[in-house]
Design a protein that fits this description.
Layout lengths: L1 E8 L1 E8 L14 E8 L4 E7 L6 E7 L5 E4 L2 E5 L1 E6 L10 H6 L1 H15 L3 H23 L4 H6 L2 H8 L3 H18 L10 H29 L1
Parallel strand pairs: 2-7
Antiparallel strand pairs: 1-2, 3-4, 4-5, 5-8, 6-7
Bound molecules: zinc ion (ZN).
The site of zinc ion (ZN) has 8 residues, from loops.
């Protein structure tokens, strides 16, 4: 919905623009309250400072401010601002099945931090984060399967844990390829040049899916045996 206000950049300027309809912090659908605005003709930028009525936090939206871009609203000519973006931009949370949350809360936390680093364009760190998340997922899964080998699993290199403590061929292959691509993200020289972080995420996602199926199946089995 188009909103109108007067901006005071030396003169009083009639402005028309579309307010953001979603809070970039809490993602609620909102009609934000405008606190103040700043128009900069030199860099053709308008910065509007809003407060979200849902979470109460403030955010800034940037608009392209072109003084020649005028439109008639009502009886008056208005400078028309074109929306660009809003800050801070909070990364969305990647949700996992409850059984994965219970199996490896560390995996869920680290995976979400890696995801956040991608949103913030920290691309050199994201792969390392996904590789670390994978290690927690696999080791926590192996501890679940072999509760008597906790100390050994925790202290052994990931590659050996995958080889020695995973029975499922599907999970073993997925974990193996994920760890290989993940290692490339942490080392100076890449071994799999044709694979990238998107392949790593794809393989981790499939690993999570197979582990979820297995844990759900174990739960059903336990209920049947009761
Ligand atoms: Zn909010």
């Amino acid at each position: 919905m188009i909103k109108y206000f007067c901006a005071h950049d030396g003169n009083s300027t009639r402005i028309a623009c579309e307010y953001p309809n979603e809070c970039p912090i809490c993602t609620s659908k909102i009609s934000p309250n405008l606190l103040m605005e700043s128009l900069n003709k030199d860099i053709q930028l308008a910065s509007l400072f809003f407060v979200c009525p849902s979470c109460g936090k403030g955010f800034v939206s940037h608009y392209m401010y072109d003084s020649t871009n005028e439109l008639k609203y009502g009886s008056y000519m208005h400078k028309h601002l074109v929306y660009l973006n809003s800050f801070p931009s909070i990364p969305n949370q990647i949700e996992f099945d409850n059984c994965i949350n219970n199996l490896s809360p560390n995996f869920c936390e680290i995976y979400n931090q890696a995801h956040a680093s991608e949103i913030y364009n920290l691309n050199q760190l994201s792969g390392i984060g996904y590789r670390k998340a994978l290690e927690f997922l696999i080791k926590d899964y192996c501890v679940y399967k072999h509760p008597d080998k906790v100390d050994k699993i925790k202290s052994t290199l990931l590659g050996q844990v995958i080889s020695n403590y995973i029975d499922s061929t599907n999970i073993k292959n997925l974990a193996k390829i994920s760890s290989w691509i993940g290692n490339d993200e942490t080392h100076y020289v890449r071994k799999f040049e044709e694979k990238d972080i998107n392949d790593l995420k794809r393989f981790i996602k499939a690993t999570v899916a197979f582990i979820t199926y297995e844990l759900t199946s174990d739960e059903a089995c336990a209920l049947v045996n009761e």
